[in-house]
Specification:
The complex is a heterodimer of chains A (233) and B (285).
Chain A (H helix, E strand, L loop, with lengths): L1 E10 L2 E11 L4 E5 L6 H9 L6 E6 L2 E2 L5 H7 L1 E4 L11 H8 L3 H4 L2 H11 L1 H6 L9 H13 L5 E5 L7 H12 L6 E6 L2 H6 L3 E6 L2 E7 H6 L1 H7 L3
Parallel strand pairs in A: 3-8, 3-9, 6-7, 7-8
Antiparallel strand pairs in A: 1-2, 1-4, 4-5, 9-10
Chain B lengths: L1 H29 L6 H18 L4 H24 L6 H23 L13 E4 L3 E4 H23 L1 H11 L1 H6 L4 H23 L10 H15 L4 H21 L5 H15 L11
Antiparallel strand pairs in B: 1-2
Helix pairs in contact in B: 1-5, 1-6, 1-8, 1-9, 1-10, 2-3, 2-4, 2-8, 2-9, 3-8, 5-6, 5-8, 9-10, 9-11, 10-11
Classes of the chains: A alpha/beta (233), B mainly alpha (285).
The structure holds adenosine-5'-diphosphate and magnesium ion (MG).
Chain lengths: 233, 285
């Protein structure tokens, strides 16, 4: 589904990723772990076209993404739930969801998808007409995920799902994600390593811009080095 | 006299609101201030004068054509002058300032320094509230101005185009991730901003005939209105435009016509002292 091989990514003059490679198969849930500043968000930005890599290739469903703008990549079926949620604060919850359906692939089925999203996150149905800036952090995160789902993506990228959320809310959102249809592939970025390993089949570990390890999540969870470094055990 | 000044204030206020909406749209989306806004307003006035008086077109057709041409000119300006300067707001300021000077001199060369006036749409006058007669042309201008403002609001609130405009002015990168071709949207909204200036121009030109530099005070007032109303607020443009229009006319009627511009600046300073981000501006902005 997604294949990244040997990409170097820069932010301005500064290199933030070195020869990063990664592969996600259809229907998989894959996690990217790493401490603050490791380059996780930059990696997602490379996939969405916001930070095109200087070297290496990214292919999605077999087609290279090089030269495509973010709005074109969205159209291919990639959707991002950005770090910090970035809902449109002055627009209502339902307008936020509608914006998610702006790409052609989402617009024709807007009403059907909207119903599905509101079924996944019933609280958004209650808040439909409320301005997004007035929603709680958890509701905004659900809104950001809902907005991404509105384009009917095949690959869903989620950056820091649990950041700033109460554990019960996080759990609720993960449960909702687990109920998503099979065909939605998920690439999950988390600092909350335990949660991420719990909700993924495979994981990659990013350290200072380089991939250092990867493997099945269950295996990584049992690994002593990882437990010491990331789980504080 | 009170009611007459009030009516005049509403007419000119609606025009200021329209011109300010054009500025606000472009600032909100692109963070660019178009210094030639007033010259595009005048250009539309000249076009409607030219088409109606010299080519004998029907006034409504002449106005529509004038606005459409200024819209296309706006697209061209964005493509040639603004697009290469993204990321450096200073350059676009300087370039549009130069454009305004060039246009003023071109108008002087082509049309001369004397006022040119497109034909009135309607003649005669109407008795208002049983107390005074008011020119029908001015009433028609008020109605036309309000109609265009209403149309702008409908487009912004109800259409996909309006939705992506609001989303892009709030978070440009996110809007691009939601599938908005923001480069194309820049071009369109710049053209639309110019078209709003043009709409103001064609509506007001039969009342205040156009001269090469008559756009300068209108553009300045539009900038004042945008700041007064609060950057990025559409309601701010409308309320701010009406306030400035009324204040100018009451000031002129009761104090002196010589200080017309001064009154609006005094209002601006008073408002900013108590509300630094304008009447309807977001506090953190
Ligand atoms: N907007 C930015 N401009 C410049 N540098 C940035 C920006 N965002 C992040 N960085 C830098 O890029 C590196 C990678 O950051 P990021 O991808 O955000 O990491 P993570 O998401 O893993 O916390 C860090 O060194 C960070 O300081
Ligand atoms: Mg990050």
């Amino acid at each position: 589904m997604l294949e990244i091989s040997g990409i170097d990514v820069f932010r301005g003059e500064t290199q933030v990723l070195w020869e990063v490679s990664l592969k996600v198969r259809p229907g998989e849930r894959v996690a990217i772990l790493g401490s603050n500043g490791a380059g996780k968000s930059s990696l997602l930005a490379a996939i969405t076209g916001t930070l095109p890599p200087q070297r290496g290739t990214i292919t999605f469903k077999g087609a290279p993404l090089a030269g495509l703008k973010p709005y074109q990549i969205t159209q291919l079926g990639v959707a991002l739930v950005p770090e910090g949620r970035r809902v449109y604060r002055d627009m209502t919850a339902s307008e936020n969801l509608e914006m998610g359906a702006y790409p052609r692939r989402g617009r024709s089925q807007l009403h059907r998808t909207m119903e599905q999203v509101l079924r996944i996150f019933p609280v958004l149905d209650e808040r439909k007409h409320q301005v997004a800036g007035t929603l709680s952090g958890g509701e905004q995160q659900m809104l950001a995920i809902g907005r991404a789902l509105m384009s009917r993506p095949e690959l869903l990228l989620i950056d820091e799902l649990s950041l700033g959320l109460a554990p019960v809310i996080t759990k609720e959102i993960y449960r909702a994600l687990a109920g998503l249809v099979e065909e939605t592939t998920i690439l999950l970025v988390e600092q909350n390593v335990e949660q991420a390993l719990h909700h993924s089949q495979r994981a990659y570990i990013l350290e200072s811009g380089r991939m250092t390890r990867n493997g099945p999540s269950a295996e990584l969870m049992a690994d002593d080095d990882i437990r010491r470094a990331y789980l504080g055990l | 006299m009170f009611a007459l000044a009030g009516m005049n204030g509403l007419v000119i206020g609606a025009i200021y609101a329209l011109a300010a909406l054009g500025v606000s749209l472009v600032v909100g989306i692109m963070n660019v201030i178009n210094f030639a806004h007033g010259e595009l307003y005048i250009l539309a006035g000249y076009f409607s004068y030219l088409f109606a008086n010299a080519f004998g077109m029907n006034f409504a057709l002449a106005m529509t054509l004038a606005v459409a041409l200024v819209f296309l000119f706006g697209l061209l300006i964005e493509y040639t002058l603004i697009r290469p300067t993204y990321g450096n707001d200073m350059y676009s300021l300087i370039l549009t300032f130069i454009l305004s000077i060039v246009l003023q001199n071109a108008y002087l060369l082509i049309f001369g320094p004397y006022p040119n006036k497109p034909p009135n749409w309607v003649g005669g006058s109407t008795l208002i509230l049983g107390s005074f007669y008011y020119g029908n042309q001015r009433l028609a201008a008020l109605i036309a101005g309000s109609a265009v403002i209403t149309l702008v609001f409908l487009v912004i609130k109800k259409t996909w185009f309006g939705r992506i405009i609001r989303a892009t002015s709030q978070d440009r990168e996110m809007a691009e991730l939601n599938g908005v071709n923001t480069k194309r949207l820049n071009m369109l909204s710049f053209g639309l901003g110019c078209a709003l200036a043009a709409a103001a121009g064609v509506i007001l030109a039969p009342i205040f005939p156009v001269t090469p530099t008559a756009g300068v005070p209108v553009a300045l007032t539009a900038f004042v209105v945008v700041v007064l109303g609060g950057m990025g607020s559409l309601w701010g443009c409308v309320i701010g435009g009406l306030i400035i229009g009324l204040v100018e006319n009451f000031g002129a009627a009761y104090i002196s016509t010589a200080y017309k511009q001064v009154f609006s600046f005094i209002i601006l300073i008073l408002v900013l002292l108590s509300r630094p981000s304008g009447l309807f501006g977001r506090r953190e902005a």
